[in-house]
């Protein structure tokens, strides 16, 4: 049960990081470009005016890689990064699908976070491999009186 709690906590932490980063990047883009809110465009069913697929791919990769890395590192299981990626892409992909967006928009929202999570999982595996190879040194601690 403790392991499952650790995994759930890792996924939640990864999702939180990803959502905060994605929202920050999208808000910054809205300020700089003056484009309407992404979720408002998706909910209205209008084409992605001002939101090119390349911008969305970059936004989701910036969000999903750190989130996937955090989930995999905290949970000590690289597959948790995939859960973060799927979670990041689920709501926008469903909104785009229901809102009648193009197939390319649905693919961007669904697959880019998964790609980011795969990159995060790969990064977490590399860090874990480095940790296993690093020699452990004993440290003597003197008790204070």
Helicity level: over 70%
Q: Report the β-strand fraction as a percent range.
A: under 5%
The total of beta strands comes to 0
Q: Whole-number average pLDDT?
A: 79
Order of helices and strands: HHHHH
Shape, per Cα inertia axes:
elongated
Number of helices: 5
Q: Can you tell me the number of structural domains?
A: 1
End-to-end separation in angstroms reads 39 Å
Radius of gyration: 19 Å
- The stretches of 5 or more residues where confidence is low (pLDDT under 50) are none
Structural class call reads: mainly alpha
Note down, in words, how this protein is organized:
- The chain is mainly alpha-helical and 145 residues long.
- The chain has one domain.
- The protein contains 5 helices and no strands.
- The chain has helices at 2-33, 38-44, 53-75, 79-98, 103-133.
- Helix 4 (79-98) packs antiparallel against helix 5.
- The mean pLDDT is 79.
Helix and strand topology:
Blueprint lengths: L1 H32 L4 H7 L8 H23 L3 H20 L4 H31 L12
Question: What structural keywords apply?
Answer:
mainly alpha; 145 residues; elongated
Summarize the structure.
By secondary structure, the chain is mostly helical.
């Amino acid at each position: 049960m403790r392991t499952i709690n650790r995994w759930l906590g890792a996924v939640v932490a990864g999702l939180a990081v990803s959502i905060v980063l994605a929202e920050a990047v999208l808000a910054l883009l809205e300020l700089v470009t003056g484009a309407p809110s992404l979720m408002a465009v998706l909910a209205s069913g209008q084409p992605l005016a001002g939101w090119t697929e390349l911008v969305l791919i970059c936004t989701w990769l910036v969000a999903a890689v750190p989130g996937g890395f955090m989930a995999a590192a905290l949970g000590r299981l690289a597959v948790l990064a995939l859960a973060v990626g799927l979670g990041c892409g689920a709501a926008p992909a469903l909104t785009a699908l229901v809102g009648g967006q193009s197939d390319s928009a649905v693919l961007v929202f669904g697959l880019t976070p998964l790609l980011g999570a795969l990159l995060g999982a790969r990064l977490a595996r590399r860090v874990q491999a480095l940790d296993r190879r690093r020699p452990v040194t004993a440290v003597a601690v003197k008790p204070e009186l």
